[in-house]
UniProtKB/TrEMBL annotation:
Gene3D superfamilies: Single-stranded right-handed beta-helix, Pectin lyase-like. Acts in the modification of cell walls via demethylesterification of cell wall pectin. One of its GO terms (molecular function) is pectinesterase activity. Residues 32-318 form the Pectinesterase catalytic domain. It catalyses: [(1->4)-alpha-D-galacturonosyl methyl ester](n) + n H2O = [(1->4)-alpha-D-galacturonosyl](n) + n methanol + n H(+). Residues 1-21 form the signal peptide. This is pectinesterase.
Amino acid sequence: MFNNCLTGFFLFFFFVNELEPRGFDKDVETTIVVGNDGEADFKTIQKAIDSIPSGNNMSWIKIEINPGIYNEKIVIPMDKQKIIMQGNNASEVIIQYNDAGISNSSGPFTLNAEYFIAIDITFMNTYNKRTPIIQYEQIKVAPSVILTADKAWFYSCRFISVQDTVADFFGRHYFQNCYIEGAIDFIWGGGQSVFQVNYKCVLIQMLTGYITAQGRQSEEDTSGFVFVNCEIKGSGKTFLGRAYRAYSRVIFYQTIMSSVIVHQGWDPMKYQGEEDNFTFAEIDCTGKGANKTGRVKWEKNYTAQDVESLIEPKTFINGDGWMASLPSSLTTFLPYFFE
């Protein structure tokens, strides 16, 4: 499917609102500061996490990260819930690591605990070189984040790699005003996630590849990827997604698509003949790439009303109301869930 040389890379960019959840202390019991100066509590983020008592699931603990590049391989264990990691600007607070080859462990950040928040942080895997010409055989799986837990919110964060940038294995996740960069299946896994902003987001792609590879496995599986108010543009060509599992589900809603989208739109991978099980849909999208002439015949022809429960975040990822347990000083930035 790919040429030996791949030119360029994808960018998935959410325009950031003017409002930012900068300082907040309400409902936060403890604040830990990480930085390279003598006034910080710790010099590494992992040591700050290690200092949090096991079994924490009652009180929110905030880790403030001072500007800097943190070369770390960070793991938040399952028994350390309710952690907030906050930088002051995603371009100034960078967590990076050079690691590749294993989808569930390579990379700078692994989340195994429920109730997690990240604000204004860049997560970057530096293994694959982001160059104008990429030798395909040199590219390896290199996630920037690995998500294996339920109930996470990422606000104004950046995720940068080349292949499998966001390893969204499991759980409900809300990506708000975020930037995601990659080239091959760079948003993938069996997660149940919404990518949304109050205004719009932009995807720029520069090689033939796939934006998503979603892994829903049955009719009862509630997972899927939903993109709301996005814009796709760039050079080269791209598929909107391919079926990572037999019941793969991806929806683009009110998205502006430039001519970079291949006419087929979607790829069944190894599930040819089982396409009726997929939920691949484009709803109320605009732009040259939204012209469905030449689309695969098995793409779902849904209306917004048909999939209202999926494109509405408060039903798709907040059905049990878990976001009400986030710090009250942050709920201002989650209007979709409390209207």
